[in-house]
Design a protein that fits this description.
281 residues, 10 helices, binds nicotinamide-adenine-dinucleotide
Length: 281
Amino acid sequence: MSALILDGKEVAARVRAEVAEAVASLPYRPGLATVLVGDDPASQVYVRGKHRDASEVGFRSFHHEVPADTSQEELEDLIERLNADPEVDGILVQLPLPAGLDAEAAVERIDPAKDVDGLHPFNLGLLVLGRDGLRPCTPAGVVRLLDHYEIPIAGKRAVIVGRSFLVGRPLGLMLSERGVDATVTVAHSRSGDLAAITREADILVAAAGAARLIGAGHVKPGTTVIDVGINRVDGKLVGDVDFDPVAEVAGAITPVPGGVGPMTRAMLLANTLTAARRRRG
Ligand code: NAD
């Protein structure tokens, strides 16, 4: 293996340390509220992790767990209560929601100033405009990781595989905005000859949710490869990138686990701090 490993765990620990240092100098403790609907085991694990992180950096955390048969109205009432609670700076509704609940409508109920997942249409709109707002955690984590390792972005070709509103699209906006200055291609399931597109990349981001979709033949030598994918194959966690062969060709690569995942969690903390400072002045 010749590629440099981009260690998301280490960089995430730095982000947490920065947030903790900032919190220690505040006259209040930022508050993060999470809402978990139902008892999906993966969601429970994610939410627990977010609370651990929150208490580690000195936040207050408030957890609301409601049954899977909660109505849309009850869920939105809970969100309204959290919007009105002065101790709550950030609200996270753990997705996906159980069938029958409208996740888009729930997210739109969150006060944009407390939308620490950065998924409210208002915050996504600010991103389109290139203005300050709360930005989605996963793409923000990818940019932070690239910055940490001083991977050149300006003038480079970035190819993102996946066009979801959660990852691919916002990341395309972030990498192409003024001051970051990549030339971005967003590929998707209808793109045709994927390898021909991805071989153009200086920075290749795989966010398709397709195990080992990206092989060595998809990658130009020296490319920085960021693997956002999380897939379970035979009980094992694998990314969208076939790690071993790609690491022979790439210049730098993120592992799964230990790459983008920890960065996503860390950026939630950074967003909560930002939201608290803006709200409380
Ligand atoms: P999604 O299903 O909403 O979107 C997937 C996108 O990939 C779609 O735009 C689709 O067109 C494209 N795609 C799918 N198969 C493809 C193929 N064979 N060729 C080209 N394009 C293809 O998924 P999402 O929410 O964006 O998540 C993507 C992956 O990232 C999932 O594995 C998810 O678990 C993971 N994820 C990880 C983190 C993290 O913190 N590491 C955060 C969010 C999502």
